[in-house]
Q: What sequence folds into this?
């Protein structure tokens, strides 16, 4: 993957808005709670900032790419910060840790897989445009 | 007029290993000098070596006092003419010519009803044109030092920039889309057209190889990448699939799972997930070719491909383009034909490969094409000789081809135990890699590493956009910074170089070459420019020299492009390439509704860096077909969203687009 900053933002909106939302709906029904959706929105908002950091780091790489290993590392970092905010700062009524890990992992995995496959199929230009689909 | 007689001569070019066939009228002469009917380029061939004459309706062969003699069917021929019967076998220096009678009764045919004087003159003249580089032969598509033979002169109407169609005295065919080249560039373009909705009946491509990857595969094999080896290409650069999913990596994993090779599947999965931290995944050449075969079958490539060679292109008075081509049948010129199209695509590939000037000078002077070779020519004889007897190979260039050649030599060493030493001659030491912004390329043992030949973001990241938005002059600078000679960071290659340096069979030397000559001890001797060497040694000896610099030839090496550029004063970009828009259109040729697009290496210096890569050809195709869709070209509909998903599904199940 060789995303640009705009590409990261656009892809984040699209993937969390579609695949991420569907996954979250499943957990919302399962947990009988709207909190998964609130968490999803927080991931989206925080992500706009995270993406700026990733973009800076990416520009220090010769190939200016963002390989899956780094995507995973970024996912873990975002998850840890989110957990800190939930359980440390208690910004929201937190779900149980198991619920959080399950939901967060499922959303990350489904959006990652969709970005590797579905995005390319419905947006043939997406991969040339650094992740921009508009 | 006397009955004129014809002979067909077949020989294998000792330079390229490709077979050549020439039907010639005799009396004829063969020799090294350009004024012979057939010119053979070797120091073992005398300037006027032999003559074949006609006497009393029979062919006679006479040696013209050549230095190294002529053998007819194994017997040395003297100065007295001997009767030549067909089939016969003539040996001259490294050449072995097989003579047969041409199809039909050649002996009684007359000059006038078989070949018109213009054609005959053109054939003769074609042997007199010196070529500055290895060009792709128009006869065999092999890389040849003798240049491409020009066909018969074009109809006089081609002297005009705009041809009035009504004035043509020859029938022509009409097509909407035509791609010139018939290689991977054409394949990518046509693949996009068909998937976007164009009818295969509206499309034509003209090329030399039935398989779209024919020439590519040949160059791979020559440069020591056989079908089972891996290419330097990304997993999702798939000429057979415009979406790039599933990539070759995922497909190889799936294939391994189906065959129960789970550990292989896991290795590839690990590689794909962790590249470039573990060795970057690259696809097996043979897998890519098989996938292209499948897609070619699906889009009906065979029906829209025509075996031929395009000779000239002209604008027509109704806003289209007239294309003259020589139709080929069984590889032989069959007839000259015309086709008129609205949208034209130029994908002629590499015009040729340039040779290092000192090596070229040595070859021209000595006629020795066996010991000094270009990596892209057929040169298996070098490895055969080395496997048997061992020896020293001097390699020039430090790119991917040099790596692959050293790998091959390393294999010969370990498998056959052949005593092979490698001298790697580099112009200068390399301590630091190229820098751009905050990043720097890695260097080890004077080799510079990069997974592919450009930084990855040049294909689809911010570097792609930066180049697209840059001015002509900026593009040249950016390309110089991101490109350069690099090799892939393959662990086996690194180990091989480290081992070689430690064990002493691989040595790196620095210096610029002054000249190459045959030494008295029978080896090749290279003299280095005194001020460029880092040691006191100013000469090197080797048994073979392989030029792996892969210098590309300018677009003038391609006769068709040269004519087009001259005829229409086409502008060039700062790097000398054909100037194209961001949609890869040659805007200077726009004419009425007609449009001309180009892709491949001839557009280097334009909006995209990796123009000669699989993905680069697909990107150029995407951009140009998007523009054609925007101007409502016949049959095309925008490919996006569900329509794109639908087309992908058709690809996945193997249904027609």
A:
């Amino acid at each position: 993957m060789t995303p640009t900053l705009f590409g990261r933002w656009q892809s984040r909106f699209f993937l969390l808005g579609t695949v991420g939302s569907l996954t979250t709906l499943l957990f919302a029904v399962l947990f009988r709670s709207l909190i998964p959706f609130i968490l999803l929105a927080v991931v989206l908002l925080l992500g706009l900032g995270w993406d700026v950091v990733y973009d800076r780091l990416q520009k220090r790489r010769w190939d200016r790419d963002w390989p899956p290993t780094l995507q995973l590392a970024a996912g873990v970092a975002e998850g840890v910060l989110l957990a800190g905010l939930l359980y440390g700062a208690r910004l929201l009524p937190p779900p149980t840790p198991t619920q959080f890990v399950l939901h967060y992992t499922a959303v990350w995995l489904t959006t990652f897989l969709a970005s590797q496959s579905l995005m390319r199929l419905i947006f043939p230009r997406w991969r040339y445009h650094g992740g921009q689909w508009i | 007029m006397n009955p004129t007689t014809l002979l067909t001569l077949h020989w294998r070019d000792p330079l390229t290993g490709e077979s050549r066939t020439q039907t010639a009228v005799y009396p004829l002469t063969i020799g090294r000098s350009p004024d012979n009917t057939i010119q053979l380029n070797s120091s073992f061939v005398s300037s006027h070596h032999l003559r074949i004459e006609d006497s009393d309706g029979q062919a006679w062969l006479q040696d013209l006092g050549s230095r190294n003699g002529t053998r007819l069917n194994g017997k040395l021929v003297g100065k007295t003419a001997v009767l030549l019967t067909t089939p016969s076998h003539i040996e001259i220096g490294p050449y072995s010519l097989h003579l047969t009678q041409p199809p039909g009764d050649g002996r009684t045919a007359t000059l006038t009803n078989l070949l018109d004087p213009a054609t005959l003159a053109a054939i003769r003249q074609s042997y007199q044109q010196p070529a500055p580089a290895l060009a792709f032969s128009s006869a065999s598509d092999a890389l040849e030092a003798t240049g491409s033979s020009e066909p018969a002169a074009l109809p006089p109407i081609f002297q005009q920039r705009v041809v009035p169609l009504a004035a043509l005295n020859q029938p022509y065919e009409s097509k909407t889309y035509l791609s010139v080249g018939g290689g991977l560039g054409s394949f990518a373009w046509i693949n996009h057209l068909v998937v976007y909705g164009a009818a295969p009946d509206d499309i034509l491509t003209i090329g030399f190889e039935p398989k779209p990857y024919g020439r590519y595969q040949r160059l791979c094999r020559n440069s020591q990448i056989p079908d089972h080896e891996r290419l330097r290409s990304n997993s999702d650069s798939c000429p057979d699939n415009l979406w790039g999913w599933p990539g070759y990596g995922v497909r190889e994993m799936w294939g391994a799972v189906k065959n129960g090779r789970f550990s292989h599947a896991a290795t590839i999965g690990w590689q794909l997930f962790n590249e470039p931290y573990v060795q970057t995944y690259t696809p097996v050449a043979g897998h890519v070719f098989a996938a292209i075969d499948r897609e070619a079958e699906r889009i009906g490539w065979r029906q829209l491909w025509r075996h031929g060679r395009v000779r000239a292109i002209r604008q027509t008075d109704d806003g289209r383009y007239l294309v003259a081509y020589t139709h080929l049948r069984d590889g032989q010129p069959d007839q000259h034909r015309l086709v008129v199209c609205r949208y034209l695509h130029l994908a002629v590939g590499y015009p040729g490969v340039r040779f290092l000037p000192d090596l070229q000078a040595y070859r021209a002077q000595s006629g020795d094409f066996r010991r000094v070779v270009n990596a892209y020519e057929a040169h298996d004889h070098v490895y055969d000789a080395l496997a048997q007897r061992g020896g020293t190979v001097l390699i020039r260039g430090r790119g991917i081809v040099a790596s692959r050649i050293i790998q091959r030599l390393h294999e010969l060493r370990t498998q056959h135990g052949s005593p092979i030493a490698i001298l790697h001659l580099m112009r200068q030491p390399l301590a630091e890699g190229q820098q751009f912004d905050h990043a720097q390329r890695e260097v080890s043992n004077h080799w510079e590493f990069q997974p592919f030949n450009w930084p990855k973001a040049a294909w689809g990241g911010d570097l792609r956009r930066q180049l697209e938005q840059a001015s002509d002059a900026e593009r040249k600078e950016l390309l110089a910074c991101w490109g350069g000679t690099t090799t892939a960071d393959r662990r086996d290659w690194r180990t091989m170089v480290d081992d070689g340096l430690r064990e002493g069979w691989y040595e790196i030397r620095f210096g610029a070459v002054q000249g190459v000559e045959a030494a008295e001890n029978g080896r090749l001797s290279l003299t280095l420019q005194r001020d460029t060497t880092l040691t006191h040694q100013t000469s090197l000896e080797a048994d073979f020299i392989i030029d792996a610099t892969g210098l590309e030839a300018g677009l003038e090496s391609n006769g068709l492009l040269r004519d087009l550029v001259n005829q229409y004063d086409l502008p060039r970009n700062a790097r000398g390439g054909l100037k194209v828009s961001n949609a890869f259109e040659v805007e200077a040729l726009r004419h009425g509704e007609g449009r001309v697009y180009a892709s491949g290496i001839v557009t280097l210096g334009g909006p995209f860096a990796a123009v000669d890569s699989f993905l680069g050809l697909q990107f150029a195709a995407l951009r140009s077909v998007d523009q054609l869709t925007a101007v409502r070209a016949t049959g095309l509909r925008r490919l996006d969203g569900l329509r794109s998903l639908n087309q992908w599904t058709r690809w996945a199940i193997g249904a027609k687009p």
Notes: The longest helix of chain B spans residues 400-416. The mean pLDDT of chain B is 87.
